[in-house]
Amino acid sequence: MLFTCPTNLDIWSNYFSLVFMSTRALDMSKVYQNVMSLNLSSFHLLDSPSKASVFEAITCVITAIWRAKWRSHYDNVGIDNQSVVD
């Protein structure tokens, strides 16, 4: 669900366009395989003064998606893709 839900696909797409260098079209099956195996060497962050690692960037989006899902479930708050990415 984290990688296959259509709502999450929009979130992943938006996040990747903001944080990572685009080398090719986003392939969620490849992202899933890389994240699950912790093989993050194919992801490259855009230049930023924050000095975050790729692992931290991926962890942030995963945490944000799950937080939004749980808020939707428990607090009956709709998922706003833009607020998840922010």
Automatic annotation (TrEMBL):
Superkingdom per UniProt: Eukaryota
Name of this chain's protein: Uncharacterized protein
